[in-house]
Structures are given as C-alpha cells and as structure tokens.
Amino acid sequence: MDNLSTALQTPWFLATAITLLGLIVGSFLNVVIFRLPKMMEQAWQRDCCELLEQTPPDTPQVSLVSPNSQCRGCGAAIKPWHNIPVLSYVFLKGCCAGCGASISSRYPVVELSTAILSFAAATVFGPTLQLAAALLLIWSLIALTGIDIDTQLLPDSITLPLLWLGLLLNTTATFTTLNEAVIGAAAGYLTLWSVYWLFKLTTGKDGMGFGDFKLLAALGAWFGWQVIPLIIILSSFVGAFVGILLILVKKQGREVPMPFGPYLAGAGLITLFFGDQLTSAYFSFIGF
Fold first, then answer.
1. Is 95 helix (H, G, I), strand (E, B) or coil?
2. Are 30 and 106 in contact (CB under 8 A)?
C-alpha cells in the first residue's frame, strides 16, 4: 500500500493510471448512454401499467449489467476480447466480428474523450480530493451529453446526485465555499426556469426541458454562483454556432429541437479547467 501511495504521488504514474482508468470507464459510459434511457422507459411503462391496473408487457428487463453486450445487427454476444476500449474498434475495423455490421464511431469517441479528459484532470489536480471529484464530474457530464443527444433527456438519476455531491464537496470548500455553492445551485435552476417560462409565455412553446435547469443547478453547486453567467454565455454561443451550422450544412429546419444539455456540459468542463481565469476575465470586462 505504501508503494502504491508513493507511485500515485509520481505525476507520470498517476496520469498513466488515470488515463487507463478513463478508457475503462469510457467503455462503461457507452453502456450507460445506451441502456439508461431504456431502463427509464421500462420504468415508465411499469408505472403506467400499475396506475391503469394493467399487466406490464412481458419484455426482458434491461439494466446496466444485463443482458450481456450484443451486436445490434445480428444479436451475437460480444466477446470480451472484442470489447477492449478503442483497440477492439481499430482491430475490427469498425465492424462486428460476426456479421460485419458497422459499429458506431461513437464508442471509441466516448472512450477516447473520457481518457483524454481524465488525463487532463490528473495533470491539473494531481493526487487530491479535487481529482476524484473532477473525474466523477467529467464522467457524469459525458454520460449526460450522450443521452441528451440521443433522447433529449437528462436523467434525474445523474443530475440530482451531481447537485447534492457538489454541495457536499463544498462543505470543505473543494471548489468554492458552501455559501456560494448553495446560491449557485439556486441561481442556476432559477435562471433557466425563468427563461423557460418567459419563452413559454411569449411563444406558447417549450424552449427547453427541466433537466437543463437541474444540470445548471448542479454546475452552480460545484463551482458557485459566479460561474453561472459564464456557463450560460459559453453554452449559448456554442449552441447557436452549432445550430446555425446544422441549418446551413444539413439543411436542418429551425423547428427541429436541439438538446441544450451537451452545451451546458461542455461549458461545465471548460469551467472545471479554466473557470477561475475566465471568471476573473469576465468580471474585469464588465468592471465588477
């Protein structure tokens, strides 16, 4: 144990270990992104059947650990050596070993993104409580991004624990003071809640989902109220840029809804690594 503790104090060893851990976790996040919405849908079906006093459909229940991973094309079980992060995708040339069906490039992208961001966190925070917290935040935001892109949902099972964890971490001022974290959580939620109702009263349409409120509240709980304007500005600019790009390149209609969660998550990651510098620059710019 002493040797391990000493090794973790060595920057290169810590960065390497965390990067490998990131690859493994990234592979698991692919499972979360694909299965958690299905688990939510099955839970909603059970609740509806119970309310209507009907028999739930006799379908296999999905969880994060069962059934075993299968090819979506032929249904063949994926062997463990075909499930090695990134490497298996490269060796299989992006195709199923059984039927040759194409495998989505999202899998290696999620794995690599998780590894790279985990490496960055290890480099920035070192062997500290901040590193452990940062990793949990990074992994959660990656999962939320993938789920929101697929389903336009931000599950409470991730956003709410993230909010409470941020408040708990800041009881010891891990990223900010507890007072600023509490105000940040309230300000984050109320800001987008107000925008939602202003848009709805003006246009009669829903501008965003309640999950966006909770995600911004969680980020406020992690980093304090000062970052709320920064996160909103960053996410709005990126969202507007991507939206215009989709309209011009893919000819996507303006009425097609776009998930806002990925942009909030991206802004949250930028805040994690550069929040202090950007917040200082922002307040200096506005003369605060």
1. strand
2. yes
Q: What is this structure's pTM? A: 0.91
- What digits encode the pLDDT tens for the residues 198-224? 888 888 887 788 999 999 999 999 999
Nearest-CA neighbor of 143 among 106, 186, 175? 106
The first and second tokens of residue 263, run together, are 């942009």
| Residue 254 reports pLDDT greater than 70 | no
* Residue pointed to by tokens 């961001």: 117
Q: How far apart are CA 189 and CA 278, in angstroms?
A: 22
SS3 215: helix
Closest alpha carbon to 154 in 164, 143, 165: 143
Distance CA 82, CA 95 (A): 10
- pLDDT tens figures, 19-54: 999 999 999 999 999 999 999 999 988 889 888 888
Q: Is 40 exposed, middle or buried (0-12, 13-18, 19+ CB in 10 A)?
A: middle
Task: Judge contact between 76 and 98, C-beta under 8 A.
Answer: yes
Contacts of 69 (CB under 8 A, 6+ apart): 31, 77, 78, 83
